Amino acid sequence: EPEVTQTPSHQVTQMGQEVILRCVPISNHLYFYWYRQILGQKVEFLVSFYNNEISEKSEIFDDQFSVERPDGSNFTLKIRSTKLEDSAMYFCASSEDGGGSDTQYFGPGTRLTVL
Amino acid sequence: AQSVTQLGSHVSVSEGALVLLRCNYSSSVPPYLFWYVQYPNQGLQLLLKYTSAATLVKGINGFEAEFKKSETSFHLTKPSAHMSDAAEYFCAVSDPSTGNQFYFGTGTSLTVIP
């Protein structure tokens, strides 16, 4: 069964450093998403992406975040200058279309630790 | 704005006992509702979803959930717990009028006692 994959599974970085989290969505899906979960808190929406553009973003997704689909398979989340509060589990998801009833398929997550 | 509340961050049941995981939502319009399960080191896997058809929704692994508009609830149940049901369970809602983002609860960790 097709699945969303994410690399790395765990990333440790120093405060102020740039990190890139990578995702490979399911191949025939058109919509891509990033969510994050700070330890002990809710899974929060960051951004959705369609047709090489951001379609929605939350207030969390500020100028230090960016997303890109650099080729036909990868979808990345870049954090330009990491802060301690960016430490979280980051989940990538994809869906066939962007309807609210459409199932989003999630990857296993990347745990980001900022020291 | 949408929000989801999952009562009970940890639930323990005996093997063979009823599983009941609670989810309440707030929404200004009838929402779409989802339950996901996460096993250790794996992604969130869809258990079931409600999209305004039948209010009782059956999912995988013997789970089901009932949409109750009057109670703004979408509780997840399974008649008989199995050891393999031990996992983290997330309830999520999306608002058909405001886009495709999901709003999640904080999750419920289910422990099954042999």
Shape of chain A: globular
Anisotropy-based shape of chain B:
globular
Helical fraction of chain A: under 10%
For the secondary structure, the number of strands of chain A is 11
What is the number of strand segments of chain B? 12
Q: What is the N-to-C order of secondary-structure elements of chain B (H for helix, E for strand)?
A: EEEEEEEEEEEE
The number of distinct helices of chain A, counting runs of at least 4 residues, comes to: 0
The residue-averaged pLDDT of chain B reads: 91
Rg of chain A: 13 Å
- Would you tell me the overall average pLDDT of chain A? 93
The portion of residues assigned to helices of chain B is under 10%
Largest interface: A-B, 32 and 28 residues
Structural class of chain A: mainly beta
Distance between the termini of chain A: 37 Å
Note the main sheet of chain A. 7 strands, mixed
- SSE string of chain A, helix = H, strand = E? EEEEEEEEEEE
Please give the count of helices of chain B.
Answer: 0
- Pick out the low-confidence regions of chain B: none
**Range of strand content of chain B:** over 45%
Radius of gyration of chain B: 14 Å
Could you give the topology of this structure?
The complex is a heterodimer of chains A (115) and B (114).
Chain A: E1 5-7, E2 10-13, E3 19-24, E4 31-37, E5 43-50, E6 53-57, E7 65-68, E8 75-79, E9 88-95, E10 105-106, E11 110-114
Chain B: E1 3-5, E2 10-14, E3 19-21, E4 24-26, E5 32-38, E6 44-50, E7 56-58, E8 64-68, E9 73-78, E10 87-94, E11 103-104, E12 108-113
Parallel strand pairs in B: 2-12
Antiparallel strand pairs in B: 1-4, 3-9, 5-6, 5-10, 7-8, 8-9, 10-11, 10-12
